[in-house]
Fold this sequence. Notes:
Number of strands: 11
Amino acid sequence: MELRHLRYFVAVAEKGSISAASRSLRVAQSAISEQIADLEDETGVPLLDRSGRTTALTVAGTAFVDEARRTLACAEMAIDRARRVHRGQIGTLRIGFFLGGRGANLPHLIRAFRKQSQDVQVSLIEMPPRHQWAALADGRIDVGFSRRPEPEYRADLRFVVLQHDPMMVILPRSHPAASGPVDLRDLANERFVFSSRELSPSVYDKAIELCSEAGFSPQIASISSVWSSVVLMVQAGEGIGLLPSNEQQFRTRDLAFLPVKAKNAHVEFVLAWSAKRDNPIVHAFRNLVLAHQKSNPPLSRARLGSHFREHR
Length: 312
């Protein structure tokens, strides 16, 4: 028994005759008659009463047509579900993120994706970049807003750079250098508070690189695991910070967040996913993020400076 047998039979039942069903389906009457005859052979009972001038359903046919309609409806639902899965509109999406990197406007993106794909269950999981790479590789998350993966993960992961986050020097407002973009050579004798390399290698390595290019090896007073802890230590007088720009900086009034005078003073903010676990939902979310990035470009260094001055 095939679906077309059921479609032809239901059409005859609804139109009242084989000729009317033929016109509706644009199928030859002989083909419809043949398929319904096959259907009657398979069920072993007559489904149509052909004794009169019109075609009518038998008692068995009346019972059969209701089930045939339900079967066709289920088939349509299955087709619709398959198509929606293919478009990334049904399933689950687990998103890794870290509070120090929200340049892609994560809350807006999540709301937009939930509106676009209402039958996708979205969950957010906070974890630092290095933990994200491992979680992507072993399938615990599907996508991650992260930093550029370290070389050992690049065979398994794919990523697209969303923006370059400028590195900022964090100083008390009373510091002599807290008046504009900073030349790190002027801070060679300062103590520094860095973020942990174990959790975010690219930020730590970039801070060391910038100090080295400025001609000194930094005196590291303390290592912290999160952006907010570095800020807290600077506030407490433990040292000065060197971290990527973060929207929280504009809510910290007792500190100055100043751009570094160096062309390469930035770290990459990326959207990453597993190459072997890519799927329609990940693809749909990635397309949404990239479309958002295209219509809402990140702050340039010039605009960042203007943004900084507005929030001083």
